């Protein structure tokens, strides 16, 4: 615990120093698995002797890798799917859950937040997350996306994948990751819906994105890429350039820590600091349109295939594994939530089915390409019950007015998925294991994999993410409160934010 606190404090102190390091080619996210092709090609360890001059010359003359059109097409499609997750998926899912007088305000908060973060990502966010700096934050090599076009080569720069010699255009990788940043920040909106100022949402999000999302993304996903591991003699140096949590060996295929836990903690802190809605616990605050919520949940499920399977960065077997786990785990979570509701209340609800789908999607996110199909089913089934408890029992224990149960679903589901990834990644339980040596891309052998050790690594990553996001969130909310104020007046809140904040209504009367 002391090491985690020291690491966090050191990270904050170094945020301003990230640009002092010279950034190299950005590595791809998430550093959770190696594609099967790379693993199969690594049949022999690197040669101990230095290459002969002729061999060295031929290697030097070898052409640079070029992107595969299939990989590029899949990544562009995945990027579009994630955009659909946010707009309209998340927007409609959240919009249906609030009262009709606040429908447009939630749609606006989701859409404009997403748009603002995409712009900030292009200006500096991508650089802070995915260029070389230190263990906590990247540098400024890609400010305003400079260097994406390689003037010397007369072509676009490439980004690494998880296979040696396989690349995708960096501009495609940057766009894909921009959608992750955008939807993560939009998720937070659900925790303080129906009573916060629109301007406060935007200011808080800009601060939190800069000091929480970008650093956590860097710590979890930044590394130098497989081609940087040219031999055993450079392994330590390459590892030292990676993000802190990546150095620990934590597995996060598509954002259990970076996206869900990070956003959920920020949302929970916001629910406390913004305060409860007027009339909370005394007046009816039932969802105004479960039809829209179901439509939104369905769009989230479809879009999530791009979110998870796209995180393989290639159109390969690991993308397929993430794809099928996203299908199976989510279905299992829907059934589990419905069973739980039926046992608790005597009947299953549409809201419960939609919430169960999101719970399963959240929990399988860090595990999607890291666990076998059986492990994915188990994770989804457990998540359905766990998140049902999260939005009922845990919510009462916490005492916060988390309007749309951001922490109950994304926090509980994200933590559960992150920890269970360490269990079901084990090759002894049908998982693909993890890379033991990026020089040869050799996987950890079944007899060498320790579930307890990997779960502990996952737990450290979870704990650091929770602490980091919580501290940044408290500071960010306080800054907003002291400058422009966090919430609207009681009169405006009772009338509804659609009219008072945006001058329009979702439905004609």
Structural description of this entry:
With 509 residues, the protein is mainly α. Helix content is 61%, strand content 3%. The protein is built from 18 helices and 6 strands. It has helices at residues 2-14, 36-41, 53-61, 69-97, 103-130, 170-188, 198-221, 235-240, 244-248, 256-274, 290-309, 317-345, 350-364, 373-398, 406-424, 451-483, 490-495, 497-502; strands at 149-150, 155-156, 158-160, 167-169, 435-437, 442-443. The strands form 3 sheets. It has a two-stranded antiparallel ribbon. Strands 3-4 form a two-stranded antiparallel sheet. A two-stranded antiparallel ribbon has the order 5-6. Strand 5 (435-437) and strand 6 (442-443) form a beta hairpin. The radius of gyration is 23 Å and the shape is globular. The termini are far apart. 56% of the residues are buried. The model is unreliable at 1-59 (pLDDT under 50).
């Amino acid at each position: 615990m002391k090491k985690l606190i020291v690491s966090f404090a050191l990270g904050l102190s170094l945020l301003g120093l990230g640009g002092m390091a010279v950034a190299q080619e950005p590595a791809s996210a998430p550093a959770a698995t190696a594609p099967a092709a790379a693993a199969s090609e690594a049949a022999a360890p690197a040669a101990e002797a230095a290459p002969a001059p002729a061999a060295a010359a031929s290697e030097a003359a070898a052409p640079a890798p070029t992107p595969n059109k299939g990989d590029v097409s899949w990544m562009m499609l995945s990027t579009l799917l994630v955009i659909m997750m946010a707009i309209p998926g998340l927007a409609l899912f959240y919009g249906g859950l609030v009262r009709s007088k606040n429908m447009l305000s939630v749609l606006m908060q989701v859409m404009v937040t997403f748009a603002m973060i995409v712009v900030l990502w292009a200006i500096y966010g991508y650089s802070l997350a995915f260029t070389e700096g230190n263990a906590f934050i990247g540098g400024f090599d890609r400010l305003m996306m400079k260097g994406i076009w390689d003037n010397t080569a007369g072509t676009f720069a490439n980004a690494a994948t998880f296979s040696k010699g396989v690349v995708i255009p960096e501009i495609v990788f940057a766009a894909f990751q921009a959608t992750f940043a955008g939807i993560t920040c939009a998720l937070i909106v659900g925790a303080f819906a129906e009573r916060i100022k629109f301007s406060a949402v935007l200011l808080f999000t800009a601060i939190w994105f800069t000091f929480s999302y970008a650093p956590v993304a860097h710590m979890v996903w930044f590394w130098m890429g497989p081609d940087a591991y040219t031999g055993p003699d450079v392994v330590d140096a390459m590892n030292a350039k990676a993000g802190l949590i990546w150095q620990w060996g934590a597995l996060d295929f598509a954002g259990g820590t970076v996206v869900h836990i990070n956003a959920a903690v920020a949302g929970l802190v916001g629910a406390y600091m913004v305060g409860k809605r007027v009339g909370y616990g005394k007046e009816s605050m039932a969802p105004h349109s479960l039809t829209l919520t179901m439509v939104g949940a369905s769009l989230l499920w479809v879009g999530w295939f791009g979110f998870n399977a796209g995180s393989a960065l290639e159109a390969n077997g690991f993308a397929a594994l993430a794809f099928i786990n996203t299908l199976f785990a989510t279905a299992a979570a829907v059934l589990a939530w419905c069973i739980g509701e039926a046992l608790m209340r005597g009947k299953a609800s549409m809201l419960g089915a939609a919430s169960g789908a999101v719970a399963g999607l959240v929990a399988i996110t860090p595990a999607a390409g890291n666990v076998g199909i059986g492990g994915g089913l188990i994770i989804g089934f457990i998540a359905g019950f766990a998140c049902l408890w999260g939005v009922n029992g845990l919510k009462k224990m916490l005492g916060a007015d988390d309007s749309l149960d951001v922490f109950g679903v994304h926090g509980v589901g994200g933590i559960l998925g992150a920890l269970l990834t360490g269990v079901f990644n084990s090759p002894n339980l049908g998982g693909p294991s993890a890379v033991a040596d990026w020089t040869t891309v050799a996987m950890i052998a079944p007899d060498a994999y320790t579930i307890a050790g990997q779960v502990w690594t996952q737990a450290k990553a979870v704990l650091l993410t929770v602490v980091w996001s919580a501290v940044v969130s408290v500071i960010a909310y306080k800054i907003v409160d002291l400058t422009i104020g966090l919430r609207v007046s009681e009169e405006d809140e009772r009338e509804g934010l659609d009219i008072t904040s945006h001058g329009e209504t979702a439905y004609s009367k």
